[in-house]
Structure formats: C-alpha cells, structure tokens
Amino acid sequence: MHLQIANSATMAILCGITILIVLLQPILFITVAFKRGKELGMTDTEMKESARSSAIFSIIPSLPIIVSYLLLVPSLGRYFPWLRLSVVGSATYETMVANMAANAFGLESISVADIPVEVFVCILFVVTIGILGGNIFNVFFLKAYDKKVESLKQGNANLVPMITTAMFLGMYGTMASPYLTNFVNIPGVAAILVAGITALLMGKFAAKSKKLKEFTFPLSMIVGMLSASVVSVIL
Amino acid sequence: MKEKSFYNKIHALGRITVVLALTSFMGVPFGIAVFNGVSMNIGEVLQNAVPILLTFTISGICENLSFMPIIGSGALYMACVTGNVSNMKVPAAVNAMGIAGYDAGTERGDVISMIAVAASTFVTTAIVFLGMLFLAPLFAPIYNNAFLQPAFQNMVPALFGALLFPYIARAPKQAVVPILVPLVVIFIVGRAFFSSNQSYIMVAVILLSVFYSYTLHKKGII
C-alpha cells in the first residue's frame, strides 16, 4: 500500500522538483564566485581548474552512495531515497531515523511489507525534519559567526594561514584518529597510511607538473583504497 | 579585509537558497499527504522529530563552527544542504585551494571553495540521479566484488590519509599536538565514547591546536 504511493508519479515529481530547487544554489554560487574571482584578479583557467579537480575527486566518494540507495529502495520506494541521498543526510541516517520513527508508530521496523499510509507520511516528515538543524543554524547564525571570525582576522591577516592550518589539522586529526587506531580493521589502517604516503610521494613529483597536481588527491585515495583490498587478501 | 558588499551578498544568497531548499524538503511529505488525502497528525510528527532534530543539531552546529573558517560561508551554506560535508565537500574545497595555491580563510580561498563545493555538488547529484535511473544495480556487483569491497569500505580512511598527510608534511611542528592528542584521548576514553562524542572532541582539539600554533608563533618557533 505505502509502496504504491512511494513509487507514484506524484512522489517522482515532488522529489524531482526539490532536487532542481536544490541545484539552483550551486548554480548561483558558482556564478557569483567566478565574478568575484575575476574582480580579485584570479584567472578563468585557475577557477575552471578548481571546478574540474573537485568534480574529478567527487566521483569516487559518490559511488558508495548509489549502493546505499539500493538498501533504502525496498522500504521507502524508488524516489524518496533518491531525494534523501541527493541532499543532507546519509544512508545510515535515513535508515536509522526511519526505523526509529517506524518503531515509534508501532511498527516492527521500516522493512515491514505494508506500512499504513498515515504512518508512512509521518515517517517521511520525521526523516526530513530530523536533519535540518545544521541548516537552520546557518540561516540564523552563520552571518553573525562569520562577522565575529572576520573581526578576529582583522589586524592579524598574516596569522590567518597559520590559524586555518591549525584548525584543519585539529579537525582531520580528530576525524582520522579512530581509523589510525582501529587495529581490528587493519585494511583501514593500511588505507590511511598508504594513501597518505602516496600523496606525499606524488606531491614531490607533482611540484613539476600542474596536471599531476590535479590528480594527486584522487589517485592517492584510490591507491590507499586498493591497498586495503591487497591487505585483506594477505590477511 | 573582505569587501562588505560581497560578504552581504553571500549571506543573503545563502539564506534565501537554504530557506528555499528546506521549504521544498518539507514540501515532499506535505505534498504526498495532500495529494493522497492523508490526514497529518502534526503533534505526533513533532513529538518524534524534535528529539532527533535536537540530537543532530548540536553536533551539526559544532561541525559548522569548525568548517566555516576553513571553507568560508558561501561554500558552507551549499555543503550543508547537500550533505557529505566532512567526507567530500570540505576535502574538495581544501584540495582545490591547495592546487590553486590560495590559503584557507582568505577571500580568494573562499572563492575557490565555493567553486569546488558547487562542482562537487553537481557531480554527486548527477551520479545519484544516474544511480536512481539505472546505474545502482549495475554498480552494486562491482562494489560487492570480494576483492574490491575492502577498498570501498575503507574509502573514508584513504580519503583522510590523502588529505591529511601533505598538511602534516607542510607544517610538521604545528601538527604534533592536533595529531597526537586525539590518539591519546581515544586510548583513554575508548572508541565507543570517542565516536559518539566526536563533534565535541573535535571542537576542543581545534581550539587546543590553534592555541598551540599561536604559542609556537609567539615563541618564534614557526
């Protein structure tokens, strides 16, 4: 019953329109960025290069998303998971929250064959609302925070690269540490180390070639991923 | 100093597009209810949605506060709407700034970040669209291939390694504390506690890292 609605043309159209509206944002921002870049004396070539290198890099991390799409289809239909995975959230989030909501409405899980339509609509609402917090924060408070950060930077312009490097190291140092210490998952430890060392080696060679520089990051990532496969075979 | 008008423009554009996006997100369940004549129990929806919203909001705010100084507001508005912020959008932006040779936190860096995050968004949206149309069942056997599966399962650590190591090499003295402290913390508090509180720990480590770098600078070490 609920799958009829989930796979209906109405659902397809609603999700499609939403994704088109979401895409307006990067279209507008990239236009503004190119314009501003030119005002700041940046060249078209370097800006296009940034777009291209980011597009190339993003292919690999996008692929697992479409596999997780398949996991959501049996319970949520074809279109709603398409929307949800195109926007904020992740397969883990959607599955977890959809299950929590299903439980709250008295269902065993989200994978039961027939969800009453009223409950299904409630589940869609809960999944949608649950993850909006970061965006709501941005709408109300990001400007003020940005202003604060700008005022801190003022007069300390020469310190900005040092501070942002420190922030970046703190951020990814924290995010990387669970992988560096996960000795149950040796392929994961191999992946992070091999990818890192490859990036360093390629960085040395890439100093001479701009073209290679563009591919250093995605290629190092792929080498690291493959090392996880190789280590798994050896183990 | 960034120009005032550009700063205002970015925030106006960000706010309008985010509100538009969030409204259309809500429009999907709402439209489904209306078109199918389903009565909505708003009280029941909120009762279930609000606790989840609060949980994710707190960690979301911590992350946004951390990311903004690196990738800039324009890129962050976009990244948060489409998600995969720490494992795709921020790395794409940081990598693009590195290639172009602009520092994070400068206006040129912000411009590059916006371009990078927009390009990344286009690619992901296109791939997910193709996945929905026909690609997902075709790609699944490759993903589940016995040899390749560990590669895909360990994509995130590989990404972090490729992103982080060049930065450590570039600023080895600055890297000591932000790399070692989380490793020590994880051994003290345990993996489970660490992962469920990672966004808060991250904010603490960032502050510590900035303080440490600043001290190094004051002492003339860097």
Question: Would you kindly provide a written description of the structure presented here, covering whatever features stand out?
Answer:
- The complex is a heterodimer of chains A (235) and B (222).
- Chain A contains 10 helices and no strands.
- Chain A has 235 residues and is mainly α.
- Chain A has 2 domains: 2-131, no CATH class; 182-234, no CATH class.
- The longest helix of chain A is centred in the first third of the chain and has 33 residues, at 44-76.
- Chain B has a domain at 171-222.
- Chain B is 87% helix and 0% strand.
- The relative contact order of chain B is 0.07.
- Chains A and B meet through helix 2, helix 3, helix 4, helix 5 and helix 6 of A and helix 1, helix 2, helix 3, helix 4 and helix 5 of B.
- Alpha-carbon distance between the termini of chain B? 24 Å
Percentage of residues in DSSP E strands of chain A:
under 5%
Instruction: Outline the low-pLDDT stretches of chain A.
Output: none
- The oligomerization state is heterodimer
Number of helices of chain B: 9
Following the backbone from N to C, one meets helices and strands of chain B in this order, namely HHHHHHHHH
Largest sheet of chain A: none
Number of beta-strand segments of chain B: 0
The gyration radius over C-alpha positions of chain A equals 22 Å
Q: Specify the helix fraction band of chain A.
A: over 70%
So how many helices of chain A? 10
The share of residues in helices of chain B is: over 70%
> Structural class of the secondary elements of chain A?
mainly alpha
Tell me what portion of residues of chain B adopts beta-strand conformation: under 5%
What integer value in Å does the Rg of chain B equal?
21 Å
Largest sheet of chain B: none
Order of helices and strands of chain A: HHHHHHHHHH
How confident overall, as mean pLDDT of chain B? Answer: 95
